[in-house]
Amino acid sequence: MTQDAVSAEASAPADTAFALTASEVEPALAALSENGGVLTMLVGIDGAFYRPLGAVMAFPEGGAPVGSLSSGCIEGDLALHAAEVLAEGRPRQLRYGRGSPYLDIRLPCGSGLDVALVPVAPGAALDGPLADLRARRPARLSLPKLPKLEIRPDPRMAVIGTGPEAAAFARLAQAAGYPTERRDGLAPGDVDAATAVVLFFHEHERETDILDAALRSPAFWIGAQGSRTAQARRLDTLRATGWDDAALARVRGPIGLIKNSRDPRVLAVSVLAEIVAATQ
């Protein structure tokens, strides 16, 4: 089958924008930043598919592919097309699955996928977004013939506290791939808008200064272990230091989607689920 039969050029609308987290994009951009290569992006889904629109995969010049767009259904064929795109210096758009001319490439889900491939050179178009992501700032990837990609930092967990609950939560968050830091205290400058501050103390009098710093920060989620009674006392203490009800509404408690859990493992799963839900 000729190239013209499968498509010629990627032509995504200029005002289209997708949104992903840094971990879904940064490895591919980093792989292309030194020598360039071909960036592939999932730009259309006809039906249902487990990867999001905007998902990327890189074929760096002289290097191994980075990332994936499927569970192995199309990556081998993408590599062949990426080599041609790199040699020709022209973008290309492909259709896989439903409605595709590639009858020998089947998608078990029965859907159709549109994938854009563009040659990418090293330079500011990649360096700028990479610098933002490495500094945990929101970034935008804007390349010709691709939809714009808004990239947000991955949620980071600032875990403060003692005992098995803090340890279990930190282990779980790390295993799930979230940046996680165990801390003894907190300063407002330590926290960005993509940070969740999680306190695990049984001695609640130790929380006040930490929560004060968290409330002075842009943290997107603040929560502390304890019962409803402990939460009421916690808020009363913070109110007495000058915080109003609007600010205190940011302090969550009891934390976790599964209430009244006394098993550190269940509490860890429950709290992580609540934090992740807040990012959606």
TrEMBL record:
<feature type="domain" description="XdhC- CoxI">
    <location>
        <begin position="36"/>
        <end position="97"/>
    </location>
</feature>
<protein>
    <recommendedName>
        <fullName>Xanthine dehydrogenase</fullName>
    </recommendedName>
</protein>
<dbReference type="Pfam" id="PF13478">
    <property type="entry name" value="XdhC_C"/>
</dbReference>
<dbReference type="InterPro" id="IPR027051">
    <property type="entry name" value="XdhC_Rossmann_dom"/>
</dbReference>
<dbReference type="Pfam" id="PF02625">
    <property type="entry name" value="XdhC_CoxI"/>
</dbReference>
<dbReference type="InterPro" id="IPR003777">
    <property type="entry name" value="XdhC_CoxI"/>
</dbReference>
<dbReference type="InterPro" id="IPR052698">
    <property type="entry name" value="MoCofactor_Util/Proc"/>
</dbReference>
<feature type="domain" description="XdhC Rossmann">
    <location>
        <begin position="157"/>
        <end position="275"/>
    </location>
</feature>
